[in-house]
């Protein structure tokens, strides 16, 4: 049996996001990705954890609101050098995508599953490259502790990005190549784009935190060349 969702335990500042997902917003990533990647049906194959942390007493977006992110090592066979939410393949022992997302986050970042409150799931979406059906899981950790690259074969950087930096127009871009473009974010010298960029953009919008930004398409290859991603 999969780990239980507990939307009732969301802090007040995350409730709009949870309500928007349950109200149909969870289908948005699949729709945004469909022009680029044929969306498959069937069972979930992988899961990712979109983990928020921040003041549990706040009623509006707190100053310390942040999201967990990882940088995949450049020698990985798939998605090498990309920024990603923790996650991976759903094993039978996981019970489902929520359990898989919690386990993968623990294996990759040292995040203790006991301190994580799963809140909601978005609709599954098929990613480019690996062509897997992935279930995004939104969760909250009041005290996430110290995260780190717990599996150095998979990740060489693990950190939280402040939500206020993510919504800053200076750190946002619409980047693409070969006729496709999608939302991207600068996290210091790293560039968050692709499937992760789409998910990040959607949760910020559904949470009611996004502000207007320059959505004119730019060159993804040029942005990657000046990033610290070292993607192949």
UniProtKB/TrEMBL annotation:
Chain ranges of the Nudix hydrolase domain: 42-189
Database matches in CDD domains: NUDIX_CoAse_Nudt7 (cd03426)
InterPro entries (alphabetical): CoAse (IPR045121), NUDIX_hydrolase-like_dom_sf (IPR015797), NUDIX_hydrolase_dom (IPR000086)
PROSITE patterns assigned to the protein according to its UniProt record, in alphabetical order: NUDIX
Alphabetically ordered keywords of this record: Hydrolase, Magnesium, Manganese, Metal-binding
Xref: Pfam families: NUDIX
Co-factor requirement: Mn(2+); Mg(2+)
Example GO molecular function: metal ion binding
Highest taxon, organism lineage: Bacteria
Protein name: 8-oxo-dGTP pyrophosphatase MutT (NUDIX family)
Organism of this sequence: Corynebacterium mucifaciens
């Amino acid at each position: 049996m999969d780990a239980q969702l507990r939307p009732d335990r969301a802090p007040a500042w995350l409730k709009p996001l949870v309500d928007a997902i349950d109200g149909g917003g969870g289908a948005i990533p699949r729709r945004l990705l469909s022009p680029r990647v044929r969306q498959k049906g069937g069972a979930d194959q992988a899961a990712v954890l979109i983990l928020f942390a921040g003041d549990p007493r706040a009623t509006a977006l707190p100053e310390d609101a942040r999201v967990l992110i990882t940088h995949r090592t450049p020698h990985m066979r798939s998605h090498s050098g990309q920024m990603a939410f923790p996650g991976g393949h759903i094993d039978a022992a996981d019970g489902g995508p929520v359990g898989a997302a919690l386990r993968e986050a623990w294996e990759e970042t040292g995040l203790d599953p006991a301190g994580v409150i799963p809140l909601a799931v978005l609709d599954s979406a098929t990613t480019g490259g690996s062509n897997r059906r992935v279930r995004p899981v939104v969760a909250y950790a009041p005290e996430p502790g110290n995260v780190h690259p717990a599996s150095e074969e998979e990740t060489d950087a693990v950190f939280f990005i402040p939500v206020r930096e993510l919504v800053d127009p200076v750190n946002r871009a619409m980047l693409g190549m070969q006729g496709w473009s999608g939302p991207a974010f600068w996290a210091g010298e790293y560039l968050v784009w692709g499937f992760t960029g789409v998910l990040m953009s959607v949760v910020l919008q559904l949470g009611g935190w996004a502000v207007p930004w320059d959505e004119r398409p730019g060159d993804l290859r040029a942005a990657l060349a000046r990033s610290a991603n070292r993607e192949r």
